[in-house]
Amino acid sequence: MAESRESSEGSDEERLPTLASLLQTSLSPPCDLGRRRSSSPVPKAGSEEEVVVVVSSGSDEDEEVVPLPERIKRRMEVRNAGFEVACSSQRSTEGGERPSFSPLPAPQSDSTAQPNMPLISGASPEISPLPKKLNHSQKEREATCQSWQRRKEREALRRQKEEEKERKRALAKMLKAQQPGECQKYITVVLDSVLLQVEGGEQVLSALQAANYSCVVENQAVPCSITWRRKTVSSQMGEGDEWTEEPNVLVLLRLEEFLSMAHNYKQEARGSMEGQQETLQTYVARVMEKMPGKILALAVAEVENYFRLQSKKRQRQAAANGRQDEGQGRRRKRAVEDSGLEITRMDVEEALVDLQLCKQVQVTFFESWEELGEYATMFTKSVAEAPFKRERENTGFSFYLEKAWCGGVKVDRSGKGLLEVWKRQLQQFNRVSLEMAEAIVSAYPSPQLLNQAYIRCSSEQERENMLANITVRHGEGVTATCRRIGPELSRRVYLQMTSHDPDLYLDVSG
């Protein structure tokens, strides 16, 4: 009975190829050889018998049996579980030798509980040691991090350079916007709507537009006023352009209003003004309340025409009354002036002087509205170029430098220009004009010649007064005048040229 059972089991066994022959045909790592392993004992390494894996159903139920080569091919395509188990088993081993993997006998319960465990026989020589691979991966990660850090630094440096270029470009644009010829493009003239309703307001607007200025008509706090707005170009990157109000304001007064305010000032000066009448001072005070912080300028057109008409009127009256005596004419003129009905040029001048002294505001007269339009154009140009001129005059000195002085004097190798240097050195003294310096230089063309002249003098008093009698000429032609250098300047030049005291105060009179 037992023999028949063994014979039946022997008939069920299949003759399969060895695992070593299958591994030689593939370069992949060992993988699972089947879902269930046989419970037959594993042959020893020194035996001559071939390793044969027998797949048994392990149950009485009928089950489809897949050939071993087909199962191995399927497992090789998956490439997942077997290689992971091999790596975990390598990490658990200790020592320098790599262990050889061979199928171990397992109970039936293990084979049924773990159907996906692989059968591995013999370690593949192409698998690199795990510690070396881990070290290599760590170095790769460090190299990747360093490369990424260098890339970030390069990007930051590139952005910094671009921002610096943008900042320089914005600064150059701001400086260019202040240059004459370019600054007019950033100025907008704001005209009050009432100005266009006045007789010559359209001519003022036409003159501004002819000069290619941008004009805007808006209702302003003061009627017939002109203000300006500037488009400021920022020197900072990313900041947009803004519009700022200029501090200047030009108010155009109509002739009737101006004459009425001048007449009221005349009545107020005489003490005969009835009630509260508006004068030039009260008008300016009211304008400054509406526009605080503004620099006010007033303009009046056709004033000279009014004076001409008044002069012709008086001439006609004098011609009509030519037969009357001179005394009666004087009494009539005095009566007209006392009545206050006529405004003379003297009355206007007195009102303007009082306004300039009390309010520091000037009034400009124009013969026609065309001339006033040209004045508004020039005023706009001055407002546009004001920042550039202020920056140019900001030399860092506490005193004013003329244009010729700012550039200095160029002296070549032949000595040309030394005479001008000596002349300017003398002009540094207080109250020494160009003519006085030229007179001294004409007598003594160099400091060395002046020192030699001082040495030839016999006394201290003679040295101090040596330059006193040099003639200084002012003007040309019939208007030319002559004067002397004088003992005071002669003494100061002598002390400056001969004294060894650095703290000596030359100008005693200040």
Give a structural overview.
By secondary structure, this protein is α/β, with parallel strands linked by helices. The protein is built from 19 helices and eight strands. It has helices at residues 2-12, 19-24, 68-78, 81-92, 108-113, 130-177, 201-210, 255-270, 280-290, 303-320, 326-339, 345-359, 369-393, 403-406, 418-427, 434-443, 447-456, 460-464, 487-498; strands spanning 187-192, 214-218, 225-232, 242-253, 295-301, 363-366, 471-474, 481-484. The strands form two sheets. A six-stranded mixed beta sheet has the order 2-1-3-4-5-6, with helices on both faces. The protein has a two-stranded antiparallel sheet with strand order 7-8. A hairpin with a 6-residue loop joins strand 7 and strand 8 (481-484). Helix 8 crosses helix 12 (345-359).
Summary keywords:
two-stranded antiparallel ribbon; six-stranded mixed sheet; 19 helices; 510 residues; flat; disordered N terminus; alpha/beta; 8 strands
Radius of gyration: 55 Å
Low-confidence stretches: 1-14, 26-62, 92-128, 130-134, 332-341
Quaternary arrangement of the chains shown?
A: single chain
Order of helices and strands: HHHHHHEHEEEHHEHHHEHHHHHHEEH
Spatial gap, N to C terminus: 148 Å
Task: Tell me the structural class.
Answer: alpha/beta
Helix content: 40-55%
What is the overall shape?
flat
Strand content: 5-15%
**Average pLDDT, to the nearest integer?**
74
Number of strands: 8
